[in-house]
Amino acid sequence: MSACQLRLHEGKTKIVFCKKIKRQSSSKTVKFDFLGYSFQPRPSATKGGRMFLGYDCAISQSSRNRIISEIKSTKFQRWTNRSIEEIAEFFNTKIQGWINYYGKFRKHKLNSLFRIFERQLIEWVRRRYKRFNMSYIKASKWFFRFKRNNVRLFVHWERGFINV
User: Fold this and answer.
1) Exposure winner among 22, 128, 145, 151, fewest CB in 10 A?
2) How many CA atoms lie within 13 A of 79 on its CB side?
3) What are phi and psi of 113, to 5 degrees?
4) Would you give the end-to-end CA distance of the chain in angstroms?
5) How many domains does the chain contain in total?
6) pLDDT for 98-136, tens place per residue?
7) Which domain holds residue 87?
8) Residue 158: which residues within 8 A CB-CB, separation 6 or more?
């Protein structure tokens, strides 16, 4: 590194053992985060269906927490004066970006994010429509019927994250 006139930042640099099934070591550090992804040993399958332990990446916990706090900080469940189409217009570019960036590897890891987002949408339905008397069950039934009939409204519904 010094030959290239580069220096490593001591606080950000660590040596990680990339554990696989055939590599054995007693190293405690087998995971690291880089550019919003978490690299660590994960179960994988071959095309023949055989399982093995591979070193793979998915959305990191810190990125996941940041997205969840971004969703919750908008407090859109209180936007009762707006329509669901306006909420979709507000969030679709963000959702598209999350899917494009974090959906490259292990796309199913985004399901939990969209489940939280949809719980917030159901809370919006409860507040918006007084006929549900704040009933979570009635609002959920209405929401899932609406979702089934309007698959193109939110980007994640259109991209196949319907049953989250």
Assistant:
1) 22
2) 17
3) -65, -45
4) 46
5) 2
6) 999 988 888 888 998 999 999 999 999 999 998 988 899
7) 61-158
8) 151, 152
